[in-house]
Automatic annotation (TrEMBL):
SUPFAM superfamilies: alpha/beta-Hydrolases. The active site is at residue 199. The lineage of its organism: Eukaryota, Fungi, Dikarya, Ascomycota, Pezizomycotina. Pfam families: Abhydrolase_3 (PF07859). Keywords: Hydrolase. PROSITE patterns: LIPASE_GDXG_SER. Signal peptide: none annotated. This is Alpha/beta hydrolase fold-3 domain-containing protein.
Length: 459
């Protein structure tokens, strides 16, 4: 018997199917069939195509599905997230454990809630589609893989309102409610929590991180409440963004270059972004995280999360935006690094010396008496790692009258905390859609993600 726990008296998401004109579905199904047949013939001769013949033909069908159906028609044809969770749990012989959260959201446990680590997972679908069986299978498979690596982890899979019934920033409130639940109700330390999401779920995770760095003015921690913004007592362990949909722009070169190697289309993305933002609402850095300032990402680095991995497929239409976004995140995290000084004369006035936690050596290995940290003397050209601390020379002193500046820092700071991976030729969240399309061969992108998670959680 399924276990469902009540976290609050907040309204629960409706599972009613939208009303549609079923005859309106017929032309779309015709287009899907025609596109599939055409691509099955032309695929071997196409200059730009997906990595395999099977993917290429199925992506052609997906392009028609995502472009042709309206939001309501797509939701009518798809089982809701809660039902998908129940179905996949049954097939995996997992006892369902669902939690009603604030703002009408739900959280579904994949694994035991008292595991050492928990990953809050936000599924993709352009905010207009529920979690597919393939998305849920991917989450189960990822949790199983990590446990096989000796990592005690569970996944708390978020079920949130779909647009156009639920519009921005409702989903950010719901994601925050999931985070609050595992911290306040389960008593978790933030350092044991990961955020993860694909596509629109990557957008949602990014928005939540930005909110934790600098609170969104319209996101209250309690439904209808006027409470002070929720604050973390320490940063989250990590965040994983898979093909994050962080920009609603559709004019970058990759949309043209990768239009036949990916399954996303401009029409589908425009439909989804318009539904998500809703009438009268404006795009900002929380709805489109690519618009967030570098300083905002520095706030995220300082307060919200220890590490981030951003993955993109070289064959996806969103890759140009993902690269720009990754650069901004990396630069923001870099600015959270310590002060780095230029070489200065040994006899400089003390008042002119940088007042920071950096360590300064002259060319003979002497250390300033007023240095806040006094390590063993080392040569100015050496790099030393000891007890998890790196001392890396960033200026070489060729004269004993100059100081060689050395930066003392932990091994995970600044840009080192952001891992950006672009896997050549792979499509949008390909490792997840392989489960949707029942393709069993694991690609390089999936392995990159698994390796990063394993390394991060074993540190």
């Amino acid at each position: 018997m399924a276990e469902t726990k009540k976290a609050s008296s907040a309204s629960v998401m409706t599972t009613e199917k939208p009303k549609i004109n079923k005859l309106g579905l017929v032309p779309v199904f015709v287009d899907i069939g025609a596109a599939t047949i055409q691509r099955s013939v032309t695929s071997p001769f196409a200059k730009v195509r997906a990595r395999t013949y099977r993917r290429d033909v199925l992506y052609a069908a997906l392009r028609e599905i995502l472009s042709g159906f309206s939001c309501e028609e797509g939701q009518y044809l798809s089982p809701p997230t809660d039902k998908v969770y129940k179905s996949i749990s049954k097939s995996k012989k997992w006892k369902e454990n669902s939690i009603d959260l604030e703002h009408g959201a739900k959280g579904h446990w994949l694994g035991h809630h008292d595991a050492k680590y928990v990953m809050i997972y936000c599924h993709g679908g352009g905010y207009i589609a529920p979690c597919t069986p393939g998305h849920m299978k991917y989450q189960f498979a990822l949790q199983k893989y990590l446990r096989k690596q000796g990592i005690d982890i569970s996944i708390f899979s978020l079920s949130y309102h779909l647009a156009p019934q639920g519009v921005y920033p409702a989903q950010i409130k719901q994601a925050l409610s999931a985070l609050q639940h595992v911290i306040e109700k389960d008593g978790r330390d933030p350092g044991t929590i990961l955020l993860a999401g694909d596509s629109a779920g990557g957008n949602l995770c990014s928005a939540l991180l930005l909110h934790l760095g600098k609170p969104h003015p319209d996101v209250s921690p309690y439904e209808g409440g006027v409470a002070s913004p929720f604050r973390l007592k320490s940063p989250l362990k990590a965040a994983l963004l898979i093909s994050p949909w962080i920009s609603f722009e559709t004019q970058s070169p990759s949309f043209q270059q990768n239009r036949t190697s990916d399954y996303l289309t401009v029409r589908a993305l425009d439909k989804a972004s318009n539904a998500y933002i809703g009438p009268g609402n404006e795009h900002d850095e929380y709805s489109e995280p690519i618009k967030a300032s570098i300083e905002h990402w520095t706030d995220v680095a300082n307060h919200a999360v220890e590490k981030i991995m951003i993955w993109g497929g070289g064959g996806e239409v969103l890759i140009d935006g993902i690269k720009v976004f990754s650069d901004r995140v990396t630069e923001g995290f870099s600015k959270s690094d310590g002060f780095i000084a230029n070489p200065i004369p040994v006899d400089s006035d003390k008042a002119n010396r940088p007042q920071s936690t950096d360590v300064f050596h002259d060319a003979r290995g002497s250390v300033y008496a007023d240095s806040p940290v006094v390590p063993e003397p080392i040569e100015a050209t050496e790099a030393l790692e000891k007890n998890g601390v790196i001392e890396q020379p960033i200026a070489n002193a060729s004269s004993p009258t100059l100081v060689a500046t050395k930066e003392t820092r932990t091994t995970a700071v600044g840009k080192d905390r952001v891992n950006v991976v672009v896997t050549p030729h792979e499509a949008h969240e390909e490792m997840i859609f392989d489960y949707v399309l029942m393709i069993s061969n694991k690609g390089d992108g999936a392995k990159e993600i698994e390796n990063w998670l394993t390394t991060t959680l074993k540190e």
